Structures are given as C-alpha cells and as structure tokens.
C-alpha cells in the first residue's frame, strides 16, 4: 500500500520548492493547486458550476474565468468563499484520489495541499502531514519578491490562512526552511529515507 504524505505550509514557506525536491528524487507528486487550475481552465470541469453560482460577471466574452474578479469577490465576502469551496473541494478531492490510484505500487507519494490544515476533509486523503515552516519575516520577503505584492496585500492573504499554531497541531513532521536551498535539499533527502523506511514498516513515529 502506498503511504501518502500531505505536504503543506503557509504562503512563502517554500512548500513548492520542497515538493520539487521530492519530485527530483522520483517520488510521485500530486499538486492540489495544479488540479484546481486545471478544473478552472478553459473548458474545465468546474466552470459550469461556477457560472451557475456566481453568474456571467466572472467570465469574459470567450467564456474564460476572470480569475482576478473571482478572487477579489472571494476575499471580500465570506459567503462567496464558502460557496466556491463547496463546489471546488469535492472536485479536487476526487481528482487527487484518481491520481493516487495510478501510483498504487509505490512505497510513498506526496500530495501538495496548501489548505490541508484549513480543510480537514483533505486529511482523509493522506497518511501523514509534513509541514514546511519558517519565520513570518522570511515568508513575507519571499512572497513580495516573487509576486510584486505589497506587504499589506501579502498579510491579508496570510490572515485568511491557518495560523502557525493550527498548522503545528496537525503536523506529524515539521521541516524548518529558513536557510539555503542546499540545506532544504539535504533535509528532504533525510525525509525521503525516513519515509521509505516508514512505508516498509521498519520505523514508526516522527522524522
């Protein structure tokens, strides 16, 4: 049976970089955000439901989703956020399960799910939770550098996510990612060996 590791962390923590390291090591990787983008791409499976719930104003003349319009609507209204999540998350979960079945013979795999803490239903899809964590100041700097967003905009996004305390409470393993890419690579290598042994039943507990 394949052991599935739920990889999560706040914005700017470096979870995507960590996921890339696992992929480099040949570990199956499923990306929940990529699935979400696929579902909402032109002709995506989620578009009819989004149009039904939010109307034509979130679509352009080519029937493509206006992502920024929808994003602003969701950030400004808790009701809109709940409606979008109610239609998207079952679709995302179903696609994750479908992809997991493709790797049934592998020792372990990784599912990158940014909202793993916020949405407990996702935790039913994984066997362990790996949290990528680092200081708030570092996360802020990373996000502002890569996105061009102002500090208050990044903080608004962070405020909408789980707190550090909430993430720590659900994590089986915590990787601190406050230093260099080389150090992250070494830490992922150690975790890779741990998860391989864990999948074989040779060890129990935390990494």
What does it look like?
The protein has helices at 15-24, 32-39, 47-54, 67-76, 78-101, 136-147, 151-159, 164-170, 181-199, and strands at residues 3-8, 29-31, 108-112, 128-133, 173-176. With 207 residues, it is of the alpha/beta class. It has 2 domains: 1-28 and 105-206, P-loop containing nucleotide triphosphate hydrolases (Rossmann fold, 3-Layer(aba) Sandwich); 33-102, no CATH class. Strands 2-3-1-4-5 form a 5-stranded parallel sheet, sandwiched between helices. The longest helix has 24 residues, at 78-101. The radius of gyration is 18 Å and the shape is globular. The mean pLDDT is 92.
Keywords:
alpha/beta; 207 residues; cytoplasm; ATP binding; 2 domains; coenzyme a biosynthesis; Rossmann fold; five-stranded parallel β-sheet; Depp_CoAkinase
* Silhouette: globular
User: The CATH topology of the largest domain, please?
Assistant: Rossmann fold
CATH domain class name of the largest domain = Alpha Beta
Query: Stretches where pLDDT falls below 50 for ≥5 residues?
Result: none
Query: Number of folding domains?
Result: 2
| Gross CATH architecture of the largest domain | 3-Layer(aba) Sandwich
With helices defined by DSSP (H or I, 4 residues minimum), what is the helix count? 9
Helix-strand pattern: EHEHHHHEEHHHEH
Quick one: how many beta strands?
A: 5
CATH superfamily of the largest domain: P-loop containing nucleotide triphosphate hydrolases
Distance between the termini: 20 Å
Structural class: alpha/beta
Q: Give the DSSP E fraction (strand runs of 2 or more residues).
A: 5-15%
Helix coverage percent: 40-55%
